[in-house]
């Protein structure tokens, strides 16, 4: 048993990481699907979209052959509508709300239709928006993730000159470095960033890290306002003995490697245990399996009923052949020659509800063991507590506190996205960026009277 790369042929790896939800083969397919939509009044799909995309309208525009109008409708509400069409958990959002579900029929393939319109716009670089002439106001944005990019686009539209400072070498945030490779490719992420910034008035400065190469005070002095869209940090530790052993990895680093190297260069074990049952855990498990791991086991300390991932995500893990262990918590990792060898797990039972409202896991005292050579930690992420505390930004365990307009306790400093909510979805971060842009525009107006 050991961690190895190149477990599968390059053809198999390519196949395993290809589009999970392929696009329409033919425009007729899109037309047929668009014509199924009954254009509900007060559409539930729009209500459940955090960015409130006018879904029946963009579908009607596809049905009537107005693809540019359709892309415009989508991007007006969600400038990352292209990426969201690939990564949104639509089963709990727009498609989950489609009235066809009530009739026990397949919901409209909203994401696929959204992808149809937006991919064409990005591929062909349709110029759908024109920014107002520059008004001389300058805003610094830290983080080129969905929150930062959406905020940048909304501000630039209004004539604000935006500079984005990003610590990585590419934009897109977790879209580029976190989301599973079979949902969105690095090439698409790059094209999406290029498309968003093609409006003009947005400069991205890469390899610039807040707290190291740039500092909040300096940004505040040189700009009229600052938006912090720094997301959350690394995976939460397990706080159990053996965590330092070789073969124990955090899910974010594992996925980051996968997103930034050849699949054939990413090592994976024979027997992989993944701790957690959120979207990150599912992604780490399914991608381990797709890299060629023999056995992948997901462990969760509660039951299926309390799981944080969606049914669709769980089904994907099952279809990929991952084992699922409910009511199981890691207790100790036992090593041999410095390498992880066994995972000792506690059997849990459910107790009284905790602060989250879910029944709490209680240790029964019984244990069992799993043979492992790799343990992936995916039990949540920790915010950048040190960074925000050092900058004197009011926060709760690192999660930045804001008011309704995105304002922090520091004048002229705004925030949104994962940095504030502790980790939700791309579409929530996009909306947070839009909301903060509104707050910033209001603030700038008050400061300068125009
Ligand atoms: C493994 C994984 C899989 C996911 N899968 C999905 C999915 O399938 N669908 C979905 O909708 N959501 C998914 N999410 C969640 C989604 O990616 C995030 O909610 C979303 O990206 C948050 O956007 P953001 O802009 O707030 O933060 P981020 O995307 O994290 O962007 C923050 C940006 O700030 C930069 N940054 C951080 N610190 C600094 C600093 N000090 N100085 C300068 N720049 C800095 C980062 O490099 C990054 O580019 C997933 C998350 C993870 C971890």
Can you describe what's shown?
The chain is of the alpha/beta class. It has three domains: 35-123, Fumarate Reductase Iron-sulfur Protein, Chain B, domain 2 (Orthogonal Bundle), CATH 1.10.1060.10; 138-233 and 382-448, FAD/NAD(P)-binding domain, CATH 3.50.50; 248-377, FAD/NAD(P)-binding domain (3-Layer(bba) Sandwich). It contains 18 helices and 15 strands. The chain has helices at residues 10-16, 27-34, 44-48, 55-63, 67-77, 81-87, 94-97, 110-123, 146-157, 174-177, 186-197, 216-222, 251-260, 279-291, 311-319, 385-390, 418-421, 426-448; strands spanning 138-142, 161-165, 202-205, 225-228, 248-250, 271-275, 295-299, 323-325, 328-336, 339-353, 359-371, 374-377, 395-396, 399-400, 413-415. It has a five-stranded parallel sheet with strand order 3-2-1-4-15, with helices on both faces. Strands 5-12-6-7-8 form a five-stranded parallel sheet. Strands 9-10-11 form a three-stranded antiparallel sheet, with no helix packed on it. The longest helix has 23 residues, at 426-448. The mean pLDDT is 96. The structure holds flavin-adenine dinucleotide (FAD). The site of flavin-adenine dinucleotide has 40 residues, from helix 9, helix 10, helix 13, helix 14 and helix 17.
The largest sheet has its strands arranged as 3-2-1-4-15
Structural class: alpha/beta
Shape: globular
Number of strands: 15
Q: What is the first-to-last residue Cα distance?
A: 67 Å
CATH topology of the largest domain: FAD/NAD(P)-binding domain
Count the helices. How many? 18
Helix content: 25-40%
Mean pLDDT: 96
What share of the residues does DSSP label as strand, in percent? 15-25%
Radius of gyration: 23 Å
């Amino acid at each position: 048993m050991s961690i190895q790369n190149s477990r599968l042929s390059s053809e198999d790896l390519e196949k395993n990481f290809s589009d999970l939800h392929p696009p329409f083969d033919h425009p007729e397919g899109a037309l047929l699907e668009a014509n199924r939509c009954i254009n509900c009044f007060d559409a539930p799909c729009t209500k459940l979209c955090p960015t409130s995309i006018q879904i029946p309208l963009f579908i009607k525009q596809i049905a009537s052959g107005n693809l540019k109008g359709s892309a415009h409708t989508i991007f007006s509400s969600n400038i990352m509508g292209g990426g969201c069409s690939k990564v949104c958990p639509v089963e709990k959002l727009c498609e989950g709300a489609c009235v066809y579900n009530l009739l026990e029929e397949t919901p409209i393939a909203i994401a696929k239709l959204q992808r149809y319109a937006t991919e064409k716009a990005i591929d062909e670089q349709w110029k759908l928006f024109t920014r107002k002439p520059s008004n001389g106001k300058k805003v610094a944005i830290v983080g080129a993730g969905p929150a930062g990019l959406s905020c940048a686009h909304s501000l630039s539209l209004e004539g604000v000159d935006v500079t984005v400072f990003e610590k990585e070498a590419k934009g897109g945030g977790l879209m580029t470095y976190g989301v599973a490779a079979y949902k969105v490719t690095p090439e698409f992420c790059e094209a999406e960033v290029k498309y968003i910034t093609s409006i003009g008035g947005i400069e991205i400065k890469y390899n610039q890290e807040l707290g190291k190469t740039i500092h909040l005070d300096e940004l505040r002095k040189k700009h009229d306002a600052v938006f912090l869209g720094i997301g959350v940090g690394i995976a939460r530790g397990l706080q159990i003995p053996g965590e330092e052993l070789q073969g124990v990895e955090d899910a974010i680093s594992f996925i980051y490697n996968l997103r930034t190297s050849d699949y054939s260069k990413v090592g994976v074990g024979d027997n992989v245990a993944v701790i957690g049952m959120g979207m990150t855990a599912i992604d780490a498990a399914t991608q381990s399996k797709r890299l060629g791991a023999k056995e992948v086991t997901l462990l969760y300390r509660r039951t299926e009923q309390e799981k944080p991932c969606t049914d669709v995500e769980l089904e994907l893990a099952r279809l990929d052949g991952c084992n699922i262990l409910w009511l199981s918590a890691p207790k100790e990792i036992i090593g041999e020659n410095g390498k992880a060898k066994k995972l000792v797990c506690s059997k849990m039972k459910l107790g009284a509800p905790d602060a989250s409202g879910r029944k709490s896991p209680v240790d029964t005292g019984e244990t069992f063991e799993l043979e492992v050579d790799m343990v992936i930690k995916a039990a949540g992420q920790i915010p950048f507590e040190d960074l925000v505390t050092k900058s004197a930004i009011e926060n709760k365990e690192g999660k930045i506190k804001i008011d309704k307009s995105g304002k922090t306790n520091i004048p002229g400093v705004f925030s949104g996205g994962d940095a504030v909510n502790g980790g939700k979805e791309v579409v929530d971060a996009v909306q947070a960026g839009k909301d903060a842009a509104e707050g910033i525009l209001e603030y700038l107006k008050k400061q300068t009277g125009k």
